[in-house]
Amino acid sequence: MDAPKTVYAFEKHLDGWLRSLSGPSPTGFDKWSPHRIAQFATLLALLIAALVFWPNNFFEPNLIHITFVMGSLGIWRFGWWFTHAIRAEIFARSRFPKMRTRANAVWQAGWRPPHLHIQMTTYFEEPAITRRVIGSILGQIRREGIPTTLWIGTGSSYDEEIITDFVRTHGADVDAEIVFLRQNQPGKRMAIGMILRAINRAGVGPDDLVIFMDGDAVYGIDVLEKTCSMFGADTDLQALTTNEEVICYGPQWIQSWLSMRFAQRRLAMQSHAMSHKVLTLTGRMSVFRARYIIDEKFIRTIEADHLDHWLWGRFRFLSGDDKSTWYYLLSKHAKMTYVPDACVYTIEQIEGSGTGRMVQNFRRWSGNMLRNGSRAIALGPFVAKPFIWWCLVDQRIAMWTMLVSPALAILTLFIEPLYIVHCLIWIVLSRTLLCLFLFRYARAPDITWPFILYFNQIINASVKVYMIFHLSKQKWANRGNQSAGGGTATLDKIKNATAMFQLVTSVIGFLIGLAVYIELLPLPTLF
């Protein structure tokens, strides 16, 4: 839905939405209303009927080799999915309950961090969102009694005035100091670096805790207690990230897509946490022990992280500060974890084309992943941990394997047009079965998820293939609509033309290889 037009209406609607999410998430069959059961029963009945009554040509002699490849890739990809699902269940049922019990015992015994530093960046945020964010922070500081300094990086007086007015009205009794730092250089990275330097000047102990968060992340119930207590129970823990829910004002399908993405994130994060690592320390909300992040090298990594590339030369990263913090701690063998019962609510406002925003997000996320993934892989499995290292390698393999099946299905139209019907049935059936597992990590089942999941996978893989050849191209609509990698100088044009040549020839080679395999094209001969 679109955001209400007036500030009062927006605040009232947002409060209601937050209240509806703050209660415990339904579990098991409580998620399944009769209407949802009927929807999925109808879908499954149609799929089974199609499999039974539509003539099966999966195993025709001239098509069996195509089915073999698609089936082998499917078994591999789904096997990898279920590996994550099993690890996630072990974490949720066995490991995390023990972690929570130890953390609760430490907290109830009176342990508190020596000092808590909350660093938050905000940039012309919607006033209603800013007030809810600050209110959630002040309420938990008041209740927990932790010595706290709130460091807020801003770009102008706009956000400062909103926060100051709110704190004077609602936070006069809270024992916390609020420090505004107005950045004098563009970009979120520079804002974070400026805050970290200010924290260093103010004096910070190695066991102080520092929260990294965004200006649109509202704390859920007991977030400070649930996250900070983990550090008291585990002196080796250096960083953690939390669960997230999404509130989206925009097209309904974007809300469904983001909800599905966050469900995938919960499953994956719990699986990764079995290795005492995660694949990103999410910028929306992550907590760090100050031991590493007060290091000058860490701060410079945030401010000026870059990559040296044979084609693009040295270029700096615009977004992806969460990947930079993660890579730095990963290189230090730091222990990290995920806290599924501490939730923050991300508030998104989508204006204009929802599809455009989706592709833009994929370009940003995929670019950040690819830029950091290569150097994380270079650390080796002994530093990154074998499972996490293979997850990084698999991300680079999967972007191509995900495109094999749709490419084969389309090419097979020239051999047996009806084969694609079986492919479509298999796509919907397999994604429906995957979503039945994914609903374990969602507040409610959604009949659109099997279809959104497949298109999400195809678009994501396509964007990654594009981005692997255009690593320097960056665009971030937030914080001043920054962009990079699109220069108009002659050298820039040559570099872009070279990258496009690589992309086109790689894709053509990929398609020709598949066409030769299915005997749509003859195998070239030398004689």
From TrEMBL:
<keyword id="KW-0472">Membrane</keyword>
<keyword id="KW-1133">Transmembrane helix</keyword>
<keyword id="KW-0808">Transferase</keyword>
<dbReference type="InterPro" id="IPR029044">
    <property type="entry name" value="Nucleotide-diphossugar_trans"/>
</dbReference>
<feature type="transmembrane region" description="Helical">
    <location>
        <begin position="451"/>
        <end position="469"/>
    </location>
</feature>
<feature type="transmembrane region" description="Helical">
    <location>
        <begin position="499"/>
        <end position="518"/>
    </location>
</feature>
<dbReference type="GO" id="GO:0005886">
    <property type="term" value="C:plasma membrane"/>
</dbReference>
<protein>
    <submittedName>
        <fullName>Mannuronan synthase</fullName>
        <ecNumber>2.4.1.33</ecNumber>
    </submittedName>
</protein>
<dbReference type="Pfam" id="PF13641">
    <property type="entry name" value="Glyco_tranf_2_3"/>
</dbReference>
<keyword id="KW-0328">Glycosyltransferase</keyword>
<feature type="transmembrane region" description="Helical">
    <location>
        <begin position="62"/>
        <end position="83"/>
    </location>
</feature>
<dbReference type="GO" id="GO:0085029">
    <property type="term" value="P:extracellular matrix assembly"/>
</dbReference>
<dbReference type="GO" id="GO:0030213">
    <property type="term" value="P:hyaluronan biosynthetic process"/>
</dbReference>
<keyword id="KW-0812">Transmembrane</keyword>
<dbReference type="GO" id="GO:0050501">
    <property type="term" value="F:hyaluronan synthase activity"/>
</dbReference>
<dbReference type="GO" id="GO:0047643">
    <property type="term" value="F:alginate synthase activity"/>
</dbReference>
<keyword id="KW-1003">Cell membrane</keyword>
<feature type="transmembrane region" description="Helical">
    <location>
        <begin position="37"/>
        <end position="56"/>
    </location>
</feature>
